[in-house]
Amino acid sequence: MLHRDCDGARRRDFLRLGMLGFAGRSLPELLAAQEAAKRGKSLIFLWLGGGAGQLDTYDMKPDSASDIRGEFKPISTSADGIQMCELMPHTARVANRLTILRSLTSADLGSHERSSRYLQTGVLPVPNMDFASFGSMYTKMLGLKQAMPPFVGVQRPIERGYGGGFLGPQYDPFLAGDPNEKEYRVRDLLPPEGVSLDRLERRREILDEFNRTWRAVESDAKVAGYAPALEQAYRMVFTPEVRDAFDIEKEPAKLRDAYGRTQVGQGLLLARRLVERGVKAVSVWMGGWDTHADNFKSLREKLMPPMDQGFGNLIADLDDRGLLDSTLVVQVGEFGRTPRVNKSAGRDHWPKAFSAVLAGGGVKRGVIVGATDANASEVKDRPITVEDFSATIFTALGVNINAVNHTAEGRPISVVNGGKPVREALA
Amino acid sequence: MPARWSFASHISPILTFAGCNQAACHGSPVGKNGFKLSLYGQHPEKDYAAIAEKRLDRAAPARSLLYLKPTMGVAHGGGRRFAKELPEARVLLAWIEAGAPMMSAGAAVLKGLDVTPPYRVLRKPGETMKLAVSAVYSDGTREDVTARSIFSSNDEAVLKVESGAVARAAGSVGEAAITARYGGLMQVATYGASTLAAVKASAAPAGLVDREVYAKLAQLNIVPSEPAGDEEFIRRLYLDVLGVLPTPGEVRIFVSSKEPAKRAWLIDQVLERPEYADLQTLLWADRLRSDSRFHRVGGVRSYYKWLREEFAANRPLDKFARSLLTATGANYTNGPANYWGNYDKISTPVEVAIQTGQLFLGVRAGCAQCHDHPFEKWTQDDFYSLAAVFSQVVEFHTKNVQEFDLRLSANRAVLHPVSKQPVEPRYFGAGVIETTPGEDRRVAFAKWLTAKENPYFARAMANLIWRNLMGRGLIHPVDDRRDSNPATHEALLEALAGELAGHGFDQKHLMRLILNSRTYQHSSKANETNKLDFKYYSRAYPKRLPAEVYMDAVAQVTGVPDTFAAWPEAKRSVQLPDNRMNLYVLEVFQRNTRLQICDREEDVTPSQGLNLINGQDLQKKLAHADGRLTQWLGSGKTDSELIEEIYLATLSRRPTAQEKDRMLTRAGAAKSRREIFEDMLWAALSSREFVFNH
């Protein structure tokens, strides 16, 4: 396993060249990791769309009634005193690198749309505007100009609240699609059939002709945005590093297998690949968690294995590569699920008490924060509001939570809407 | 010090000025650290109660928390708001020493504010002007309250207010509305700033629109752009009214025609074409948020059908609105019933109030849902009184559980969130709606709303029509009417509203009037004085093609139509009722998500750029064996003629001699004729000039 000196130096990385650690690491890769670390933190945000139940994941209550505790049992993990669902062996193995928040509580009543907006932005939704997602706000505050898109979304966004909102569509994530597809390509990143890169260049020259002679107002703001957007697009097309970053087939097959040949598994692998290469925020969306019926069957067969395998291996892989300290990983959904199992062997929405996981840059390792009551139905200890959750994320990323952005109408919006960072979680 | 104290008039303004009752501090909905004030002091009685409870020490006034906290005599999370020596602190202390009365006998009450100087235009760079605010009291006395007023400008690029109530010309040409707030009241004053040299005023063209627009331009010394040429005009007209491009044949005929009134004639023609109804249906379906997830396929199908019939018949807008506002029945068969909810549930009275406010009153009343509107006179009571109008509707599901059937119930109460008492339904900003039991209150409301003299409806509709054609509403955002956000051309808006109301709310009539104006027909090519004008219509403002219009234009130009398996009757994407249909091009070009009532984004994003550069669909259309390019190439046209066709089809104009020369050179040097013309057509379709309506 990778060791680190107390001052964070990674001298021993060099000693491990040629020794297969998790999946083999080359010098260029390690150097890339160091480069990434120097550039400031990255965010990987795993969204469990539909809402994962706390009693079936991180907040097991084995001593509660059978129609509360459900069908699963807790298992021990690599962290003393932390147990989690038996369906999460991979995550259990990396628990000593996680901060598990058990006392999240949402002020929303529990509609998917509103709660999804709430938990992806940290702000309770209002009718007339959209707030910015964590990734959008973070990359806005970084203010980078680079060929690599600063914020990437993997798989399909599930509800509103995932993009730039009032900050503008330029802060929306660049949507990268499904890396688990055979012959995965980012939509429109490569030339279409029948058109070579050379021909693309020729086309660009002709396009320049057309754009040059247009006589309408250049300073018009909307028109002015056209050229930079196209420039950015061309940069992505013609910069081999960008095409390379999305080329998941370059990852060793063994590693791809380790993460799992699933949408979430390959999505998280792509996320790791991207943050290594200069992407500052990646959102990976995984749906299906809204288990109003057949909760246990769905979790056991469809949802937990791929998520656990992908997530557990992501943490291990990041740590192995020396990227964990410079990457903040967040796993959360829009709410939890009802403690009492319903008539369809399902659980319904439960915003009052639910769990989330943090790992990596800026947060503690192997720690639980907060507690719920005997049935995981109310927060008993150390409640964490969604605003507090947001404040914690931004503090870990090094963003000033009181910084202000303005809407198009001039209304000031702070990065965090009154929450306080959870000190018990921060390193 | 006042002889007779009034908390509302003397103390509350200090709390506002010092920022105590702002949203970030004690004015937040939950207060701060156990001390809650009303936002910006709008409820002085409640604030007084909160203060008198624990923050006054009448025995030792200087030990009152109200005095110690803001002066940092004790620790204060909000920091020091003012020093002990300043008048604010001394007035506070004096008031507490006088027994901290809510209102001394005979104390005067603040009635209004006066802002001076009157309208003027600052003409020198960085020129300043000192503003003054007088408080007018109920006993007729006046007081200079400038030092404790809070100022804001609605356009800081034009005018910025600095400390000391100094307004400074900030560099941009235009007008700004300065709002002065004091003591829970506000007053707006508008001023202009323009460093442009005076121009010899040419005679303003006659006509309602041009008169007002040109008068404002003359005030600001902005020189309007030249009239658009015929080629510019026809492309813009077709895109604005029909959402399609003119064909090369149409362009040629129009440009070469010598008829003196050909533009008026073309406008009349275009307004009668069926594509007009298609485009209006799309624009209204956006604003009504017809959504295939929430209304289901059955709902969006009936909504679309109804909307298209309305616009094909040029239904008067008052009737249109009344149909929506009074609809009943099953939403799969009765289109307007979709206004009231979705498969999941009927919209709550609050949701209908927000929607109706934006769509038909032109007011964002939703801000007043959780608290009195921070800057406007709309209170929470106003908002809930509006919501109470819509409290009678209930649903029940027809045998298809996803369809709803709208019925009226007996009166159900809407409760005020704070008092928990039932709220009386009111016409917005006006009297109580009286109805007999069982009567549909919505009918009375709709009748009031759509009456000719209603102060909201005609203005809201006229502003929307104007915005759709001109690119920006006279009130902007288009549904955000408030005192602190005045119209750029108030007289014009009133006149347009009057024109609409006076002609039976005939939308086409108003459109015809606007389209025939010189203002609409300005070129988008700017001159030195107006290249930074974004609000005074001295030039045409470019608008990016909406997603559906772009997609259809590509299909039209390439001669390869799109087909939509699920909607075989839709021949163009603009006709698709399903806003969630999985069409990447529409998504990436930002079709309206209809999740809220808002305008489409028009920024060009890198994903769009990639789609233009590498889009598979576009390439397929360009390379299509049966497409227009194949036709052209097989028709015996010369390179020169082909180049002309490309420009006419995509940009609705002929190439200049220079452009044609350069393209001919490329064509001559190319290895493959097919390829080079594909590339040329691709470039034309990806150019700024194509992607924008200008």
Mean pLDDT of chain B: 92
Rg of chain B over CA atoms, rounded to whole Å, is 30 Å
Instruction: State the low-pLDDT regions of chain A, or none.
Output: 1-24
Instruction: Kindly state the number of beta strands of chain A.
Output: 17
Distance N terminus to C terminus of chain B? 61 Å
User: Shape of chain B, please?
Assistant: globular
What fold name goes in the CATH topology slot of the largest domain in chain A? Alkaline Phosphatase, subunit A
Integer-rounded radius of gyration of chain A:
22 Å
Chains forming the largest contact: A-B, 58 and 68 residues
N to C succession of SSEs of chain A: HHEHEEHEHHEEHHHHHEHEEEEEEEEHEE
Fold blueprint:
The complex is a heterodimer of chains A (427) and B (694).
Chain A: H1 11-15, H2 27-38, E1 42-48, H3 66-69, E2 74-76, E3 83-85, H4 89-93, E4 98-105, H5 112-121, H6 134-142, E5 151-154, E6 174-175, H7 197-212, H8 221-238, H9 240-245, H10 253-259, H11 263-276, E7 281-286, H12 295-320, E8 327-333, E9 336-337, E10 349-350, E11 354-360, E12 367-369, E13 371-372, E14 379-381, E15 384-385, H13 386-397, E16 404-406, E17 412-414
Parallel strand pairs in A: 1-7, 1-8, 4-12, 4-15, 5-6, 5-7
Antiparallel strand pairs in A: 2-3, 4-11, 8-11, 9-10, 13-14, 16-17
Helix pairs in contact in A: 11-12
Chain B: H1 7-17, H2 44-54, H3 65-68, H4 87-97, E1 110-116, E2 121-122, E3 128-130, E4 132-137, E5 142-144, E6 150-153, E7 159-162, E8 166-169, E9 174-182, E10 185-193, H5 208-220, H6 230-241, H7 248-256, H8 262-271, H9 274-288, H10 296-312, H11 317-325, E11 329-330, H12 349-361, H13 380-389, E12 393-397, E13 404-408, H14 441-449, H15 457-470, H16 490-502, H17 507-515, E14 543-544, H18 547-558, H19 584-588, H20 606-614, H21 616-623, H22 628-634, H23 639-651, H24 657-669, H25 673-686, H26 688-691, E15 692-693
Parallel strand pairs in B: 2-10
Antiparallel strand pairs in B: 1-4, 3-8, 4-5, 6-9, 7-8, 9-10, 11-13, 12-13, 14-15
